[in-house]
User: Which sequence fits this backbone?
């Protein structure tokens, strides 16, 4: 059973832990750098990216996270987590981990009242057809580098991408019963 950390600074980390357990992982809530060494993979949840970024700085997690990700630990960032993985941020930038060659545009779809759900466009990556994506104050990803693979799109925009061991979803897979996105992370963890 893979041990998968869920960054527990802010956001719906409990929902990610439950989704990971359904997918067959052993979830662990993460707040301290010393916890990273024992993990097979990590989830950076959605929430508010400024709050999470301040927490990463306060808990001295930026450099240990960068090191583990650069060593090959699979990581999934959802919504705010995707912002924190990106190399570049527009619309009130925050400090990021800079491990995904993409630009994240914060709140690209609007405010909380502009939240929506939509299925991925066809065709999607193998096994993702019909995936329902829930967007809440969601970012968009643009200016994807050559090593970034688009796994799913909604209305033509990339919503799930992968660059080697780094996965980024601009939506919230943890709030639906569909665990396919979490399973992608577990597959990457071997």
Assistant:
């Amino acid at each position: 059973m893979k041990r998968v950390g869920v960054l527990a600074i802010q956001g719906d980390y409990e929902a990610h832990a439950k989704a990971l357990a359904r997918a067959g992982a052993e979830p662990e809530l993460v707040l301290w750098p010393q916890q990273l060494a024992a993990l097979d993979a990590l989830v950076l949840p959605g929430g508010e990216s400024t709050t999470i970024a301040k927490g990463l700085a306060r808990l001295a997690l930026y450099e240990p996270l960068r090191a583990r990700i650069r060593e090959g630990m699979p990581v999934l960032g959802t919504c705010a987590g995707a912002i924190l993985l990106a190399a570049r941020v527009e619309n009130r930038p925050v400090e990021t981990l800079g491990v995904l060659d993409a630009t994240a545009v914060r709140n690209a779809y609007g405010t909380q009242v502009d939240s929506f759900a939509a299925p991925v466009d066809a065709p999607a990556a193998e096994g993702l057809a019909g995936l329902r994506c829930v967007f809440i104050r969601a970012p968009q990803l643009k200016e994807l580098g050559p090593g970034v693979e688009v796994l799913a799109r909604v209305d033509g925009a990339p919503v799930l991408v992968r660059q080697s061991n780094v996965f980024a979803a601009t939506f919230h897979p943890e709030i639906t019963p569909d665990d396919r996105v979490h399973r992608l992370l577990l597959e990457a963890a071997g």
Notes: Residues 3-188 form a domain with the Rossmann fold fold (CATH 3.40.50.880). The two ends are 10 Å apart (CA to CA).
